[in-house]
Amino acid sequence: MASVFEYAPAPESRSVVDIAPSYGLFIDGEFTDAADGRVFKSISPSTEEVLSEVAQAGEADVDRAVKAARKAFEKWSALPGSERAKYLFRIARIIQERSRELAVLETLDNGKPIKETRDADLPLVAAHFFYYAGWADKLEHAGFGASPRPLGVAGQVIPWNFPLLMLAWKIAPALATGNTVVLKPAETTPLSALFFADICRQAGLPKGVVNILPGYGDAGAALVGHEDVNKVAFTGSTAVGKEIARTVAGTRKKLTLELGGKGANIVFDDAPIDQAVEGIVTGIFFNQGQVCCAGSRLLVQESIRDELLDSLKRRLSTLRLGDPLDKNTDIGAINSAEQLARITALTEQGEAEGAERWSPACELPSSGYWFAPTLFTNVTQAHTIARDEIFGPVLSVLTFRTPDEAVAKANNSQYGLSAGIWTEKGSRILAVANKLRAGVVWSNTFNKFDPTSPFGGYKESGFGREGGRHGLEAYLAPSSPEGER
Amino acid sequence: MPTTAPAAHALGDVTASDSTLRRFLHGLPGVDAVGLEARAASLGTRSIKTTAKAYAIDLAISMVDLTTLEGADTPGKVRALGVKAVHPDPTDRTTPTTAAVCVYPDMVAAAKEAVAGSGVKVASVATAFPAGRAALDVKLADVRDAVSAGADEVDMVIDRGAFLAGNYMKVYDEIVAVREALGSSARLKVIFETGELSTYDNIRRASWLGMLAGADFIKTSTGKVAVNATPANTLLMLEAVRDFRAQTGVQVGVKPAGGIRTSKDAIKFLVLVNETAGEDWLDNHWFRFGASSLLNDLLMQRQKLATGRYSGPDYVTVD
Questions:
Q1: ipTM above 0.90, yes or no
Q2: How much is the average pLDDT of A253-262?
């Protein structure tokens, strides 16, 4: 897009982060090779450059890590809450101090724009640790009995879309409540979790309290299936979530699942249009749409459809796609070749089923994994792209005539994670929000996160809540000695 | 440059009566304050470096309405300002001139003389600036004074009292009357005093009201109240001129005024222009900064880009 006001490249410096050529597993406070010596490469999705070689955890390593966590549990859970809080506060402060380094690292490993890692991911990561640090010595007042107890060892499996933030969502409440942790980051984004391991050492966290096992699905399966794990927390796809639920069924393990979504962003004719357009853009193009709570279905009142689409298309034409390290980049790279293939296949299906596809003029870099911001019009409830989670920068536009129809269409989904309501009429916000079966309902905004607010799904979007006071519950047993195995 | 005529045709007869005008203004989409401010803040994080910065600084200099609006203004002060507008940086003649100097009506003649032959315009505030609390006859006499002294542009204030009382037609009629008093020679900037209108919904309504009445520019503020130009209210007005052109084909300019003091701030405003109204507005015919101290900071930044080091306040002129 040639313009008279062409922004010169403004890259964030890569030199603030020092990525080692290889990393081990983090078990019992030490970095170590995998038992079978396997390694895998982590690449930068924007350039396909190999960033580092990482040890790949297998079943034996999982067992070693769970044993370390079990051993650490006794002392860690016996610490007064105020002492555990000190560690968490220390971790939070180190994250803040190292936030620029971690933001650059995350952008390199994940492909998302530095603008997002700098202004969203990292501030939220620190905020999560600060928030749960504050709970550690107040658990008796959290509403889960007079002296709630930790569960034991938590096995946690996290996705690649917000690597460090999902780690924070999992580890902060687990540690605050006195549990110990074995966490498996996603195979495409292991690096920030390994830097977090270093932060744990820097904070003097006792050995074995946090163990990090980079690896693939087999390591995740071994972890959730391990007989000495008391609690399983998973964020990822609905298909894997169902598998985990089957594995855990019949055991005494506690389980929380945060799975897929197909969020409806409902725009009424009395909406603040310019802000709604921003909210639609944030809803589906934040993190290239690779967000489980993305507003991937736009439900717009038919009477303002054309006007809204004109505004939206004009706005999409200003999005800047390119080098994720450039501070002016709005849209970064897709996380992996595999994900790009999935997005491509689903959008092709959208076209084949007769929906109308549109993208702004947009040049894609020649290497790396890229997908232009895309919207589909003439989409109905029957289209695959209105039902299946695409997990990419692809918006399906549907229309409705009345509030009842909007609610019916929004709820007509196997998922129920998020929804948005845009109207200047307060009474309508309340009336509609009460009828939406979605774990998070935003009004006149979208994709706003805060550690004080619980987050989780209805239906096939999962169960259990993360964040807020509610997020403690998944890691606590009520006052009785039920916590003992 | 021909001035734009009042252009309501595409919008039918929304100004036919008090009630049609009220219905139209109250039917404009609402503004969500949190979302508007978040968008302005997010555009404020754009990183404008090297060549882009050099372009933006020169553009910003060329958009300055170099202003003095003090009780203590004298012909000497105004002359100095005029010379500064023509040669902002006496050590570097490649520096663009500012767009205009902006003075009170009785200083227009002195200003005209100082900028003669340079292309720098003379803008005059009028209509009982800044309060606007005077009879229409007095306001129109003020305008005629400015124009007969040679003002190229007139910056009028709206009757905020009438606006806040819901008397939109009175505000509209006054702008139309001023427009007529100007004749076809001068361009009209309409100042809303956004700090007194207070809500973003009001600012959007005032923007449309001003454009319907024939404003060439809509301008945030006088610089005389607590809250003047902000990124959010300027963003909102840029949305209004963008939408007005889409509906009527008529392009209207925007002038944030008051409180913009640094190059960094000015560049943020230019980013707002670029990414909201678009590059058609990146020209001093369509966008201005009402400012006095901004110019020296722009000049210092310009010198820094050229020489690689900061010079300091004694290397730009104090006028």
A1: yes
A2: 97
